[in-house]
Amino acid sequence: MKFIFEVTVKPGHTAEEYADAWVRASELIQQAPGALGTELHRKIGAPNQLIAIAHWRSKAERDAMEAIPNAAVAKIIRSAADFVTVKLIGEFEEPEWVVKPKQQQQQQQQQQQQ
């Protein structure tokens, strides 16, 4: 499952400032059972707009992580709260429909046959 949120960095601050806090919090969150990694993307043409995508094995495991307060993560998040706005986009299932270039599909099929 994917947990996706949008971050807007307020004027006078930089995406790098937020990314520093995001990395520190994410390193702690990624220790939770079911955490499969996370990534932060900068919007093309809008350097202070970011999208974060957290990958989880299941919604239940992500919910379990949220149910146990982590003071260190909360402190990091509060440190960035003054200079960003965060908007939850949503929680999404793994893709049901995927289209890839034909060459990539053939390579994956060959790997599966080995």
TrEMBL record:
A Pfam family hit: ABM
This protein's UniProt keywords: Monooxygenase, Oxidoreductase
GO molecular function terms attached to this record: monooxygenase activity
InterPro entries on file: ABM_dom, Dimeric_a/b-barrel
Domain ABM residues, every copy: 4-61
Name by which UniProt lists this protein: Heme-degrading monooxygenase HmoA
Organism this protein belongs to: Simiduia aestuariiviva
